[in-house]
Write a structure and sequence with these properties.
By secondary structure, this protein is mainly α. The chain is 80% helix and 0% strand. The radius of gyration is 19 Å and the shape is globular.
């Protein structure tokens, strides 16, 4: 990989991983426009590790509070009831919301690679789920906080995340924020739960591909991986900060418009 490819792909991954605009759609563009080859498993792992560190660092207080409360709630049923707090419940809801995406994503992996990972699918899903995000932003009641979630809501959010694992271009953050808004969460709570829900799924993805890398014969270029991880970390951290500021003032509409333009642009590119 050239230095330009490393910089562009790492920044794309970092800026789009947590925005509701689909990282897969954006990672497709350089290869389609410039003819770049696949970056390989090792680079994918590196940039995902960068985004993972970014979300953990940004929400470090919430992560520590949730983990601490969750561990205290472990044990007997009586212990879970007596030590149940908003943070411990949130920890359980994050675990529950992770299960559908992990199972369905793993089981559907080969099918997705064979039949769904195409520019046409990404163009369609970019537009369709952009319109769903608009509908949720306009019609959602948006009165609940993140601590008003229950196990049913967490499961619904988990299955919405699983949709993103199956259909490229959906956007994991986009579909979970959409589902959160439809469940009545306010914008900040929908975004925060989406970001927290990303931590275990990105961790499992990184572990899975790390095992694949360990079993493969791919030569590891540590300088490339280090630069990719650093750039994706910096861009993802900035992205989370800016995203939360933007939705406070303008809601989801800028991202809806962007998705529609991107989807139409992909269609035009594919047709001509």
């Amino acid at each position: 990989m050239s230095i330009i490819e490393i910089i562009v792909l790492a920044l794309i991954q970092g800026f789009t991983e947590f925005l509701p605009i689909s990282s897969s759609a954006h990672l497709l563009l350089p290869s389609q426009i410039f003819g770049w080859q696949d970056q390989g498993i090792a680079f994918d792992i590196a940039v995902h590790v960068g985004t993972l560190i970014a979300v953990i660092m940004y929400f470090r207080k919430e992560v520590v509070d949730i983990l601490s409360a969750w561990f205290k709630s472990l044990g007997s049923i009586e212990s879970m009831k007596s030590n149940a707090t908003d943070d411990s419940k949130l920890g359980w809801w994050i675990i529950l919301g992770t299960i559908p995406a992990a199972l369905i994503g793993y089981l559907a992996k080969d099918f997705v690679e064979l039949y769904l990972r195409s520019a046409w699918v990404i163009a369609i899903t970019t537009i369709v789920f952009g319109l769903l995000l608009w509908y949720a932003d306009v019609k959602g009641k948006q009165t609940k906080t993140i601590y008003q979630l229950n196990w049913k809501s967490a499961l619904i959010l988990g299955f919405s995340q699983a949709i993103a694992a199956v259909f490229p271009g959906t956007s994991r953050s986009g579909i979970t924020i959409t589902a959160g808004l439809m469940l009545g969460l306010n914008k900040e709570s929908a975004a925060r739960f989406s970001f927290l829900l990303a931590i275990p799924i990105i961790s499992m993805m990184g572990l899975y591909y790390s095992l694949e890398l360990a079993l493969s014969d791919e030569v590891v270029d540590w300088a490339t991986l280090g630069l990719g991880a650093l750039l994706s970390f910096l861009s993802a951290y900035a992205c989370i900060y800016l995203f939360l500021k933007i939705i406070e003032r303008m809601g989801m509409m800028p991202f809806v418009i962007y998705r529609l333009l991107l989807g139409l642009g992909l269609f035009i590119f594919l047709l001509y």
